[in-house]
Amino acid sequence: MHIPTIKPLYLKIITHIGALLPLAWTVQDYFTNNLTVNPIQELTFRTGRYALILLILTLAITPLNALFGWRKLIPVRRLFGLYAALYATLHFLIFVGLDYGFDRELLQEAIFEKRYALIGFSAFLILLALALTSNRSAMKRLGKRWKKLHRLVYLAGGLAIVHFIWVVKADLTRPLLYGSVMALFLLFRLRPLRRWAQSIRVRFRRTGTLKVGETRP
Ligand code: HEM
């Protein structure tokens, strides 16, 4: 399967626009008073949701590449990650600034006593560290450690899901749905599964058709 021949530059432009649209839509809703009766909570929910969706999209690129050979998506992975960090930062700033009015004591109490806030904060710190080290110079400086550090994206994803579960409390449908998708992507880190995906891809490319269980002569 091939991605339609989109030039890498266009793919990046589409990603920028797609990732910024929810922000533009939220800003518009803010200025037109369309953010429910509790606008601060709605802003917190929306930015949290966008951060998580972008994080999941970041994690989707490796399996998509393994299954379909969509290498063109690799540069877009970094953009998704950066936008996930941007929305997580906005989510954090709304919590710290609008919700808690930058009150240090109250914030300390909230972050260290509310388990959902502590785990969200941990996920946020990881995303921030990854965003700050996602450039070429950090890659060079960190050498082999760069890859190890950036594997923490899976930990950030797991923490964000637990945060989501603790936030919603009763109806676990949404966090479990997001969590299952994330777990599926995580499976593709396992070597046997990656090899299997690769072998299917090669066979598919050779024959043009995919017959499950078929072996090459
Ligand atoms: C500094 C760290 C964080 C803090 C203090 C924080 C705080 C919050 C708060 C207060 C809520 C709303 C709770 C409520 O009113 O019931 C929330 C919801 C949420 N947060 Fe966070 N959060 C943090 C980090 C993150 C991160 C890193 C992510 C994702 C990558 C995330 C994803 C979510 C999601 C998905 C929701 C629920 C949205 C919904 O119900 O649709 N949060 N968070």
Structure commentary:
The protein has helices at 8-31, 39-68, 74-99, 104-113, 115-132, 136-142, 144-150, 152-168, 173-187, 191-207. The chain has 217 residues and is mostly helical. It has one domain. Protoporphyrin IX containing FE binds at residues 41, 44-45, 48-49, 51-52, 55, 88, 91-92, 95, 117, 120-121, 123-124, 127, 160, 163-164, 167-168.
Given the C-alpha coordinates, what overall shape results?
Answer: globular
Average pLDDT across residues?
91
N- to C-terminal distance: 23 Å
Helical segment tally?
Answer: 10
Which molecules are bound in this entry? protoporphyrin IX containing FE
The fraction of residues in strands falls at: under 5%
Helix content: over 70%
The major sheet is characterized as: none
Helix/strand/pairing category: mainly alpha
Number of strands: 0
Question: What Rg do the Cα atoms give?
Answer: 20 Å
**Low-confidence parts:** 210-217
Q: Give the assembly state of these chains.
A: single chain
Instruction: Give the number of domains.
Output: 1
| Strand and helix order | HHHHHHHHHH
